[in-house]
Amino acid sequence: MGRKWNNIKEKKASKDANTSRVYAKFGVEIYVAAKKGEPDPEANRALKVVLERAKTYNVPKAIIDRALDKAKGSGEENYEDLRYEGFGPNGSMLIIDALTNNVNRTAPAVRAAFNKNGGSMGVSGSVAYMFDASAVIGVTGKTLDEVMEILLESDVDVRDIVEEDEDIIVYAEPDQFHAVQEALKNAGISEFSVAELTMLPQTSVTLPADAQVQFEKLIDALEDLEDVQQVYHNVEFDEE
After folding, report:
1. pTM score, two decimals?
2. Mean pLDDT of 151-166
3. Average pLDDT, the chain
4. Looking at 123-240, which runs of residues are DSSP E strands?
5. Separation of CA 189 from chain center
6. TACO1/YebC-like second and third domain: from which residue to which, for each copy (predicted)?
C-alpha cells in the first residue's frame, strides 16, 4: 500500500509550489467547515480535520483566523459540496471534489478542463467505486515499530502502517483519523508530514510518457479551478 503515498506526496508537492492558490482554497474550506458546525475545532470534528491538514501545508495563521472570524461573524456565503468523476488518457480515472457558491459555474468549468486535456466527464458512480475513502497520517522521527506500538497500546484500529522514505505512513478508516492523531500526539508527536482524508485507488495505472504529460496538464487545469478543492486519481507517476 505504500506506493499510494507517492500520489499524495506528488499532490502535496504540487500544492506547495502554488501557495497562494492553496491558501485561498483552505480559506474557503475552513469557512465552510466552521459555518456547518461550531467555529471551535474541539467541538467541530470536520473543522479540526481541515485545520490539521492546513498545518501540513503551512497555511498562515492570519488566513485561518480570517476564515474563522468570517464564519463567526456576518459571513453568509452558501457553498455546496460537489463531486465529479471522469476519465483521463489510457484508463486513468479521477475524482474531483469542489466547494462552490455557484453551481452553474463549476460543472461547465470542470467539463471544459476535461475536454481540453484529453479527458471526459463520467456519470456519478462511474469511478468512485474504484477508490476507497481513507485517513492517511504521516510522521517522521519514529520507526515503524515505534508507531505500531503506540497505536497498539492505544487500541486504535488501522488498515496498514508502512515505511516510505523518511516517513511512517498510517492508513486507517476515515472515522479513525482523530483517534490515530490523538494516540500519536499523546506519545509526544506534534508534527505530521501528512494529515489527510483522501480517496485512494484500489488499483493504479502507469502511463506512457506522452500520456503522462497530457494527464499532468489535465490535473493542473482542474486544480487551477477556483472551486476545486481536491483531485484524486489512480495514476502512478514514474519516478525521475
Report:
1. 0.88
2. 90
3. 89
4. 131-139, 160-164, 167-172, 194-201, 228-233
5. 21
6. 79-235
Among 6-10, 86-90, 99-103, the least confident range: 6-10
Predicted confidence band of residue 1 (pLDDT cuts 50, 70, 90): very low
CATH class of 130-201: alpha beta
Q: Where in the chain is the domain with CATH 3.30.70.980?
A: 80-129+203-233, 130-201
Q: 188: which residues sit within 8 A by CB, 6+ positions away?
A: none
Task: Name the CATH architecture for the domain at 80-129+203-233.
Answer: 2-Layer Sandwich (3.30)
- At the top level of CATH, which class does the domain 4-72 belong to? mainly alpha
Cell of 152: 497498539
Rounded Cα gap, residues 198 and 132, in angstroms: 8
pLDDT higher than 60, residue 234: yes
